Amino acid sequence: MVPAVVLLLTAALPASAQRDQSAAANVRQSEQYEQELRSNPSFRAQRMKLECGPINDPQLHQQCVDSFAGDGAPPARRRRQ
Questions:
Q1: How much is the pTM?
Q2: In terms of residue numbers, what domain contains 59?
Q3: Distance CA 27, CA 51 (A)
Q4: Is 75 within the bounds of a domain?
Q5: Counting runs of H as helices and runs of E as strands, what totals does the chain give?
Q6: What's the pLDDT tens digit per position in 20-70?
Q7: Is residue 36 assigned to a domain?
């Protein structure tokens, strides 16, 4: 029984390592995307048009546009009047 457990644990290690590599790659890609948004106004405008353009609700559209402010912080919540 013990050899089977060792075999299972050994087989699971590469999957764990792959998840770690995938997570690290995802973090790197997210950082590159954020840097591109901050440093390239035309890229930011293109992404804003692509992501916010189809939103018809004025408040949701504005929240989407505000999310591209460039400081990385989520937009401030507006109070309903």
A1: 0.55
A2: 2-66
A3: 21
A4: no
A5: 3, 0
A6: 778 888 999 999 998 988 889 999 999 999 999 999 999 999 999 998 885
A7: yes
